[in-house]
């Protein structure tokens, strides 16, 4: 076994003379850990032990299982770097002889990112993570799935905007099996038919045909005792509570797209989006038309003729509305900029108040007398008193 020594002084490397440079250098690049220590193996460990140790470390620090954890990502890279060196006879010999500087002389300078690691060791990851339960391609970052939900809000909250807590069902990695789908204490077994490749090769005459392994369905591994919690799928549905700002001016049937609030991404992929469909409960006082809103006030013909002050509902509460003498039926009062706010804060629609004038259907004797007097003053022709009409009708029915 070669003894590790320091790099020879005449290595040909440019020497660092300025003290400040040395300090900044040593701070920027923290001391690398010993590769054997990283994988937790003896210096004399044979290749299969190193592979096994690496798989264990990669499993533990895999970005799928440690989303948003930069320390885990560093550990994941560190383990991959250790494995890259110790699994290669030449690099391992250089490392044993010269330490970390050895492999870098052979042109190896570590991995830039996790993507590079996945593509470098895709055959290893294929059977390691084939059963994580996320589906799809396993060899690169994947965007998280979209979430869709629906919320019902009162009319007033659609106008004012509101913050709501929404409960959504999300698919997340199962805690009990760390997303592997294998019962705790067990692990997926490499498929015996394809040896973990997920593909099998048939020979047919002169041709070789490669097909998806029928035993493991291309996963490369099989779960012999499935995790009870997730039935071997590696994922569970879980409730998550999300705070959502519903903007002022939202209308019934609109869908809000909230970027990045869907399911977590896989392997550093971006998260999916949250789509919230908004249902607005109607308010019998208001009719909405885009950003304009319509309402009505009802007054009697006498109020219309003489003018009056009435209570009118507005989006900001009731107001006293003054109506001039001689207000006509279906008169519309438009209150500029008092409608629904335009989403995104660009002004407001208008509020239109429609005046409805009612004509009395039942009059007391005194009221009828006053109206007849009014008609006479204006020289208007009006029907004969009802009494006479009904009595003559009765007379006719009796056949007199
Ligand atoms: Zn499970
Ligand atoms: Zn197989």
Automatic annotation (TrEMBL):
CXXCXGXG motif repeats: 174-181, 191-198, 213-220, 227-234
MF (Gene Ontology): ATP binding; heat shock protein binding; unfolded protein binding; zinc ion binding
The keyword Chaperone belongs to this UniProt entry's keyword annotation: yes
Binding sites annotated in the UniProt record for Zn(2+) 1: 174, 177, 227, 230
Domain CR-type stretches: 161-239
Keywords for this protein: Chaperone, Cytoplasm, DNA replication, Metal-binding, Repeat, Stress response, Zinc, Zinc-finger
UniProt-annotated location(s): Cytoplasm
Keyword Zinc-finger: yes
Domain J stretches: 34-99
SUPFAM superfamilies per record: Chaperone J-domain, DnaJ/Hsp40 cysteine-rich domain, HSP40/DnaJ peptide-binding domain
PROSITE patterns referenced in this protein's UniProt entry, alphabetically: DNAJ_1, DNAJ_2, ZF_CR
Binding site for Zn(2+) 2: 191, 194, 213, 216
Cofactor(s) this protein cannot do without: Zn(2+)
Major subcellular location class: cytoplasm
Gene3D superfamilies xref list: DnaJ domain, Heat shock protein DnaJ, cysteine-rich domain, Urease metallochaperone UreE, N-terminal domain
ZnF locations on chain (CR-type): 161-239
Domain notes: The J domain is necessary and sufficient to stimulate DnaK ATPase activity. Zinc center 1 plays an important role in the autonomous, DnaK-independent chaperone activity of DnaJ. Zinc center 2 is essential for interaction with DnaK and for DnaJ activity.
Quaternary structure annotation from Swiss-Prot or TrEMBL: Homodimer.
Function: Participates actively in the response to hyperosmotic and heat shock by preventing the aggregation of stress-denatured proteins and by disaggregating proteins, also in an autonomous, DnaK-independent fashion. Unfolded proteins bind initially to DnaJ; upon interaction with the DnaJ-bound protein, DnaK hydrolyzes its bound ATP, resulting in the formation of a stable complex. GrpE releases ADP from DnaK; ATP binding to DnaK triggers the release of the substrate protein, thus completing the reaction cycle.
Family of the protein in this entry: Belongs to the DnaJ family.
Protein name listed in UniProt: Chaperone protein DnaJ
Phylogenetic classification of the source organism: Bacteria, Pseudomonadati, Myxococcota, Polyangia, Nannocystales
